[in-house]
């Protein structure tokens, strides 16, 4: 199975249309006196749209992205976009397993770039060059430049596509997998389905078991599940509409770049470790690079598909490969006890609660995460 180079090339006409739409944005007023309490703050959105229109340089960001090794492969007739970044490693140094880095929603491959840079070239950051990894960063099926596969978009289906990328397309006989959010769940499925090829998995969102029937819940587990259910009452509106009326929402977001920005920025602020200021975690150029990729690829609607198809997911088998968790600090993970993850992972070798870094930890804390991943995956080198 072959793959070919890929370049991001947004037509001038598409950028002209984007600017025209931004210049004609109709803004809302805030609901109540407290900024962000009811969603993306209109005042912040005005500033972001103004910056997007007058100062953000997409062509410069496009050139930076195209300096990286992008490819596309055909898997069962569907296009899959990915980056394949080789390690900067001394000749003759024993190679750690190549790593697959998988993003979640509302993210994309850009989230993984600071992490990938540190993993492929640790010497640039004061690390041991012998610990450099080859890294593969896909756009998950349905995201940006990757097509939806045939059939329901389940976590298992995504894992099957990514496994074929690593083995059939790239020829890796053994590899490690990392992810957060959807990418973390997919990494869990990879470990469960392909233990002979998957050396280990690392996640920032601890996996749940397929069932809690094996033993009674501990007080810590019950307290966490109760707290998570309470939090979902305040945060779950986005997934409820994307899982029940995705086409209605997508029609609005595909027609309004400001609306798209508001929908994505809401989650970047809520789920990151930003201490109340979104731009403590992300600069505007990074946010607008991600938002512009969603806008110009037209993929916001297909990124919702795995929510609509959620009920097609089957119970995941136990994860038997070596596993590691560096726990995100976002509200949905607060208080999650290790014993809950041990119900899903029979070989949980590393558990860390660093106390910083949220849902988008590869962007927020790439140095911390690269260190934890390097220690875990280098420990899995063959003797």
Compile the SSE list and pairings:
Layout: E1 3-5, H1 12-23, H2 42-54, H3 58-66, E2 70-75, E3 78-85, E4 99-102, H4 113-120, E5 135-138, H5 155-169, E6 175-179, H6 182-193, E7 198-203, H7 219-235, H8 237-244, H9 246-253, H10 257-271, H11 284-297, H12 300-303, H13 305-308, E8 323-326, H14 338-344, E9 348-352, H15 361-364, H16 366-378
Parallel strand pairs: 4-5, 4-6, 6-7, 7-8, 8-9
Antiparallel strand pairs: 1-2, 2-3, 3-5
Helix pairs in contact: 1-2, 4-16, 5-6, 10-11
List keywords for this structure.
alpha/beta; Rossmann fold; nine-stranded mixed sheet; 16 helices; 43% helix
Detailed description of the structure:
This protein has 383 residues and is of the alpha/beta class. The protein has one domain (3-378): Alpha/Beta hydrolase fold, catalytic domain (Rossmann fold, 3-Layer(aba) Sandwich). The chain has 16 helices and nine strands. It has helices spanning 12-23, 42-54, 58-66, 113-120, 155-169, 182-193, 219-235, 237-244, 246-253, 257-271, 284-297, 300-303, 305-308, 338-344, 361-364, 366-378, and strands at residues 3-5, 70-75, 78-85, 99-102, 135-138, 175-179, 198-203, 323-326, 348-352. It has a nine-stranded mixed beta sheet with strand order 1-2-3-5-4-6-7-8-9, sandwiched between helices. The longest helix is centred in the middle third of the chain and has 17 residues, at 219-235. The chain starts with a strand and ends in a 5-residue tail after the last helix. Belongs to the peptidase S33 family. InterPro entries: AB_hydrolase_fold (IPR029058), Epox_hydrolase-like (IPR000639), Epoxide_hydro_N (IPR010497), Epoxide_hydrolase (IPR016292). Keywords: Aromatic hydrocarbons catabolism, Hydrolase.
